[in-house]
């Protein structure tokens, strides 16, 4: 009697076949549970003892993609043990292809994100770089998913060659129409990876100067000294000569002073030594030279060159101010007079 029940047919399958499918499904789900509990648990223990960060990434893939894929595979394998109608079998095969494509694309996207995060870790988690790479990661994800959809359609039997050809022609038209946008987009990659400047740097482009506030896919925004925001296309920046003062290790300073023609020769010879002593006794400076430079219309010109050992502009101005005060003080002690524009008229009696 029991055997007769087992041999009864429902939807082209015996009761026995349904029990076998149920057994396969139960065994598969049990296997997945074991993998989830013991194998992944063991890997987590190893990862905690190891300094390799790739282990955490691998466990994340197993938990987010591996386990769901195994669960779905259990249902697929158990269903394949049964005789299914032609339409149902085609539907299951199509779902299988969609699920495989989805999980593979997710793995590639996660690998891309992990690669970018690893790159940022080498840059010591630079927040500027993180913001700059957001747009690039979005573009990479879009390309991965677009490629996944094309491969899926091809595997499902659709002729994608015509679609790709159409997209190619349309892409050429779009590229011509959006040529400036594409140039800015590739210039963005050049800025991100070549690092001519980053957010927070003080730069000068031609007659414009300011602090970089934002680096976008198309434009870069700079806050000028006057307070207004300057917006440049990325192409303008990569095609221009950009002076980045944030990267400057020290600042070269050249200035000139003039004394009167009535200054005695012995005092003129003392001036270079006076200027050298003043600069050497000023903190955060490096003396280069001080010379009697030239004869001007109403003054004798001395030229001084020194280095400020800091890129900070305010620091430079503080040092120059201190040097100017000290020069004034030392010249007054020695009776050396600064020159100013004068004319002397000699009248012959």
- The amount of beta strand, in percent, is 15-25%
Mean pLDDT: 79
Classify the helix fraction into a percent range. 55-70%
N-to-C SSE string, H for helix and E for strand: HEEHHHHHHEEEEHEEHEEH
Find the structural class using helix and strand composition.
Answer: alpha+beta
Uncertain parts: none
Enumerate how many helices there are, as a single number: 10
Q: Could you tell me the radius of gyration in angstroms?
A: 38 Å
State the domain count.
3
Span from first to last CA?
153 Å
Can you tell me the overall shape? elongated
Number of strands: 10
Main pleated-sheet profile: 5 strands, antiparallel
Q: Largest beta sheet: what is the strand line-up?
A: 6-5-4-3-7
Notes on the structure:
With about 350 residues, the protein is an alpha+beta fold. It has three domains: about 1-125, no CATH class; about 190-245, SH3 type barrels (Roll); about 250-335, Alpha-Beta Plaits. Helices cover about 60% and strands about 15% of the residues. It has ten helices and ten strands. The chain has helices at about 1-5, 15-50, 55-80, 85-120, 125-155, 160-175, 180-195, 235-240, 265-280, 315-335, and strands at about 10, 15, 200-205, 210-215, 220-225, 230-235, 240-245, 250-260, 285-295, 300-310. A five-stranded antiparallel sheet has the order 6-5-4-3-7. Helix 9 packs antiparallel against helix 10. It is elongated, with a radius of gyration of 38 Å. The model has no long low-confidence stretch (mean pLDDT about 80).
């Amino acid at each position: 009697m029991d055997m007769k029940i087992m041999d009864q047919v429902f939807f082209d399958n015996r009761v026995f076949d349904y029990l076998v499918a149920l057994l396969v499904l139960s065994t598969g789900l049990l296997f997945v549970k074991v993998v989830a509990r013991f194998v992944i648990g063991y890997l987590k223990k190893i990862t905690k003892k190891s300094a390799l960060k790739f282990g955490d990434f691998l466990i994340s893939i197993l938990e987010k993609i591996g386990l769901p894929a195994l669960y779905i595979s259990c249902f697929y394998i158990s269903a394949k043990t049964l005789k299914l109608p032609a339409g149902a079998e085609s539907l299951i095969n199509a779902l299988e292809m969609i699920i495989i494509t989805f999980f593979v694309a997710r793995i590639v996207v996660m690998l891309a994100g992990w690669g970018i995060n690893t790159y940022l870790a080498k840059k010591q988690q630079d927040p500027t770089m993180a913001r700059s790479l957001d747009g690039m990661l979005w573009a990479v994800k879009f390309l991965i998913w677009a490629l996944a959809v094309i491969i899926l359609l091809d595997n499902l039997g659709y002729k994608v060659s015509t679609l790709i050809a159409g997209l190619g022609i349309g892409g050429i038209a779009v590229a011509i129409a959006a040529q400036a946008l594409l140039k800015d987009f590739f210039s963005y990659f050049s800025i991100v990876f070549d690092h001519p400047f980053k957010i927070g740097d003080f730069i000068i482009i031609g007659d414009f100067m300011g602090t970089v506030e934002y680096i976008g896919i198309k434009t870069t925004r700079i806050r000028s000294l006057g307070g207004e925001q300057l917006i440049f296309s990325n192409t303008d920046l990569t095609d221009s000569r950009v002076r980045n003062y944030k990267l400057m290790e020290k600042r070269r300073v050249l200035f000139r002073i003039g004394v009167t023609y009535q200054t005695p020769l012995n005092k003129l010879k003392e001036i270079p030594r006076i200027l050298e002593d003043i600069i050497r006794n000023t903190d955060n400076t490096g003396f280069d030279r001080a010379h009697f430079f030239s004869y001007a219309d109403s003054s004798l010109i001395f030229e001084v060159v020194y280095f400020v050992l800091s890129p900070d502009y305010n620091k430079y101005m503080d040092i120059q101010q201190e040097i100017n005060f000290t020069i004034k003080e030392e010249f007054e002690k020695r009776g050396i007079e600064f020159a100013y524009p004068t004319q002397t008229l000699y009248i012959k009696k």
